[in-house]
Amino acid sequence: MRKLIVLLIGLACLQPACSTTASQRAGRIILPTPVEETVASVHIMVHPNVELISIIQHISKYGETFPFLLNNNDFRYREDIVRQFRQHSDHDAIRFMDDVSLKPRMYNFSAPPTSMLYLDESFRLREDLVHDDFLMARIGGVDSLRRFGEYLGDYSQQAGFAEFYAEHAAYYKSLVDSVKSKFDEVNYVEELEAFYGTRQESYNLILVPLYGHVGFGPHVDSREGDTHIFNIMGPQSVESGVLNFGDKSYFKKMQRHEFSHSFVNPLTEKYWDEAVELAYLFERLPETARKEVCGDWQECLNEHVVRAVTTYLAYMEGEETGRKAREYEIGRGMIFLDDLMTAIRVYESKRDQYPTFDSYYDELLAALRKHPKE
Question: Rounded to whole angstroms, what are the CA distances from 38 to 35, 45, 348, 355?
Fold first, then answer.
């Protein structure tokens, strides 16, 4: 328990809501602790580091290239952001963001918020975490992220971000409170760990008001071997200036989907020598999948597996619920969904033989091998 608390203090995940501003310690900026509450073992928060990068994305050129990833609706908080931070748009942090984010497969989509989890409350690179090589490559390497952290610290001071965050603590709390009741029906920690047969050290839901109708499911590993998983999500809609993170059905799907990525993606990497042999299937996917869901075979395989799992869990709630979930995913171009669903049913029927999803993953890939090269 002690190492969990130590790690999550660094991640700023287990601190209570804070109304104090940043202070200077040995010339370093110290951000406020996040507005946070724990419900059913999930830590729900507005994370200061992630909130700042979303502001950087919002006032840089990022939104011109990826408008669908940002929340461009009119609401009071966004107006506050524009009023306070756009006047600092010539800062090195903004220029750096433009340099690294506007190229395909570089510092965009999940990379910006995920990278913030590797920085501490002073925007210094954390050495107690295992640095993800793929993520670091997307920003130009570890030294590049370290330099960006320096820019962010300076930007935070010049633009008064810490004070801004503290002044909006009540607003952030209202966002956290708005999703608490959505945890009434499902204990996601128990459900997912029972299905996958493995446990994670912590589950963290980060709400990002400036993000669009999107979700990202990263994880970070400590050097002691613990895995902390995240769902970083924007609101589904804005209604009369109020952010809505979805009804219970949508919210349930999002938690299952994004948290599942932290179980599934590492297995795809582990069994990549086998998975890459199926890369020819990527070209058989409809354009809607290759353009709107995933950009390469590894991403598409992860999406197929995750969506097969969430669809299976939907069927466990009822035939109609499952049918709707399946129709949605097929409509998104997940043409191998049924193959994987059949394999998952076998997995669940043979848990004595396959106690974990890891132990079954090669059999899951076998369900796709029945589609030979043409």
Answer: 11, 9, 30, 29
* Residue whose C-alpha is closest to residue 177's, from 75, 78, 37: 37
Say what the pLDDT of residue 24 is.
Answer: 47
Burial letters 2-13, b for 16+ CB under 10 A, else e: eebeebbebbbb
Among 356, 353, 361, 313, residue whose Cα is nearest residue 199: 356
CA pair distance 338, 334, nearest whole angstrom: 9
CA 147 to chain centre: 23
Tokens of 369: 């091998």
Closest Cα to residue 73, out of 207, 233, 206, 236?
236
Question: What residues does each domain of the chain span?
Answer: 25-242, 271-369
CA dihedral 171, 172, 173, 179 (to 10 degrees): 110
What is the spatial distance between Cα 131 and Cα 24, in angstroms, rounded to a whole number?
27
pLDDT along the chain (374 residues), means of 10: 47 42 56 95 98 98 94 97 96 97 89 98 96 95 97 96 97 97 92 98 98 96 96 97 94 97 97 97 92 90 97 97 97 96 98 98 97 86
Label residue 273 exposed, middle or buried (CB < 10 Å: 0-12, 13-18, 19+).
exposed
* CB 281, CB 297: distance < 8 Å: yes
Q: What was the pLDDT predicted at 26?
A: 42
C-alpha dihedral sign at 242, 117, 299, 256: negative
Q: Is 48 within 8 Å of 12 (Cβ atoms)?
A: yes
Give the span between the Cα atoms of 144 and 210, in whole angstroms.
Answer: 25
DSSP sequence for 224-276: TS-EEEEEEE--SEEETTEEE---HHHHHHHHHHHHHHHHHHHHHHHTHHHHG
Contact 311, 329 (CB under 8 A): yes
The residue among 235, 208, 214 whose CA lies nearest residue 56 is 208
DSSP β-bridge partners for residue 202? 228
